[in-house]
Amino acid sequence: MPIGLSCPLPLAQYPKITMAHGGGGRLMHMLIDELFTTAFGKTEEHDGATLEVEGGRIAITTDSFVVKPLFFPGGNIGTLAVNGTVNDLAACGAVPKALTAGFILEEGLPTETLWRVVLSMAAAAEVAGVPIVTGDTKVIEHRDGNGLFINTTGLGMVADGVSIAAGRARPGDRVLINGSIAAHGVAVMSVREGLKFESDLKSDCAPLAEMVQRLLTAVGPTAVHVLRDPTRGGVATTLCEISCAAHCCVVIHEETVPVADGAMGACEILGLDPLYVANEGKMLIIVAPDSADAALATLRAHPDGKDAAIIGEVVESPQGRVIGRNTFGGERVLDMHSGEQLPRIC
Amino acid sequence: MRHISEYRDASRMGPLLDAISASVARPINLMEVCGGQTHNLLKYGIDAMLPEQLTMLHGPGCPVCVTPLELIDQAIAIAKIEDVIVTSFGDMLRVPGSHTDLLGARSEGADVRIVYSPLDAVDLAEKHRDRQIVFVGVGFETTAPIDALAVLRARQKDLDNFSLLAAHVLVPPAIDALLCAGDVNIHGFLAPGHVCAVMGYTEYEALAERHGVPIVVTGFEPLDLLVGIHMAVRAIQTGQATVFNQYRRVVTREGNVPAQQTMRRVFALCDRKWRGLGLIPNSGLRLRSELSRFDAAARFGVAGLTARESTECRAGEVLRGALQPPQCVAFARECNPDHPLGAPMVSAEGACAAYYNHRRT
Lengths: 346, 361
Description:
The structure holds two protein chains of two kinds.
Chain A: H1 26-40, E1 49-53, E2 56-65, E3 71-72, E4 75-76, H2 77-91, E5 94-106, H3 111-128, E6 132-140, E7 148-158, E8 174-177, H4 183-189, H5 209-219, E9 224-228, H6 234-246, E10 249-253, H7 261-270, E11 284-287, H8 292-300, E12 309-315, E13 322-325, E14 331-333
Parallel strand pairs in A: 5-6, 10-13
Antiparallel strand pairs in A: 1-2, 2-7, 3-4, 5-7, 8-11, 8-12, 9-11, 10-12, 13-14
Chain B: H1 13-23, E1 28-34, H2 35-43, H3 46-49, E2 54-61, H4 63-66, H5 69-79, E3 84-88, H6 102-107, E4 111-114, H7 118-127, E5 132-139, H8 144-156, E6 162-169, H9 171-181, E7 188-192, H10 193-199, H11 202-211, E8 215-218, H12 222-238, E9 243-245, H13 257-266, E10 267-274, E11 278-287, H14 296-299, H15 315-319, H16 351-358
Helix pairs in contact in B: 1-12, 2-16, 7-8, 8-13, 9-11
């Protein structure tokens, strides 16, 4: 493909990268669609790619972790780096087989901090049943002495008959989630410098590949059309991606979406919408309508899915839209945010 | 969740809507002042369920929206100075100044941080004694007391590296100005419940009497809004120009007296320019002269900075209730949350953002 010499992004508006370009919202998608895709070519919009190889189909995914602070209630950057990539493989319907781990360390980082993170990674990998098989280490110059960034790449195997893609959502399909949302984003925010508030809430960080495999077995691989883990940008942004890829509309019944109790209170106070808050142990599951009840029962029988719920359905139009309905009869467009949600003034 | 779910009980909505419909006997324009109320009216679809003769006008109660352009430019100018950390509430960071916003300044290397409380900015000042910490203090009577507390705490800790870029505004002078201007026909108001939680509502009694309009102190949940609207409509129909309190579970007539006292210890009244509304006498708060050493505009020499409003944005009319957001030609076209022409499209409380989110289905 010929690549133009000029950058396709509207340079006048964004001559420099802003934090919003990594916030999981519209600006990040613009960066991916207009810059990376222009250079690398179009790929399937998903958490990972699946490739046919001799003897089967593999799934491959990569993710980088830059969370601050490094430690937060319910986890740390290491547990995220393992579970995040395991869940991206799970969203491909794959059984995780191996992870790689690349570390970028800042000069001045306490070695003890790195040790604690690495031990958590080893423990998380054991729980997820996936070995960390190779890695890389780089050190960058001193900035504030606390920098630790991790990239993990995951490799998994996809069973015959499994065909999961955002574009497979069909009108009539049901939308499920495996439990209460918004715990991770609120837990991290509660310990962030300048934003600290008292909260008992813990991140929901957990590996979901085993739960997904059970689901695929219970309802049959072809009944599961879409799996996505709603991390940055939350449930709303992830559903926007799905509705765009599948050229359909997703309707969410807002009162059916389980929200962690402590997270609800914090969101009310901070003026955040839980549907846009990050999760690290949640999976959005879109299934054929006649498999919805079986899928719900299977999820609820699993420890990571005991609060699972059917939260909405796929309809034909308006294409590319996500609509939130409330019991009052009001409805709203759940759009992608431009970047991160920002706490409001009052 | 207790104390919230009761006020979102859809089964109680029908009778209230019926009661409102039965009370409206002529065209009525009712203005809700607070942006939080605007958003919930649209989020829950209440505005669309009201009788046709009743029009909700959206008022100037979005703190970010009425903050003058100069202040944002001043904050950006300060943020560009070396060794300064500018702190503010989240939604202030994306409000466009003359050329860029605070997030844009951050991407250029400025140290701009979101805090949830100005007291966190004081903590930052204590932690980074070699840096200057500036808190951009905007908002109504709701945020003024805690900003005042931050200044007092900085003085108590003898922190010479903390300062406040203050642009607080007061609700009653704005209502007075809207009614005096007379270009928009407003028959009654829903007063902002949380401002009244701090200030009480005696100031509003004087306003109601002077202008002959009822004012209902109203909460924010859907049932609060419906009850408040019903009380206002009944008062308009029966000609009772007085103050009613729908939000009794939070608001008393006297308000939060210690908070008011803290505000008065730190701030004095001043004339203030409102974005979209212009200069309103005695409508703002400035630091008292004995605390002027905490004034960021003076400390960094940016007080003289002036700015000119864009002619593309009709936020001024929106903030006065003279224009509903979808009537603006730029709405959801040139102006959207990614490329806001004005603050009402940015803020979580802005009327344009409310319509953008809830009225495009």
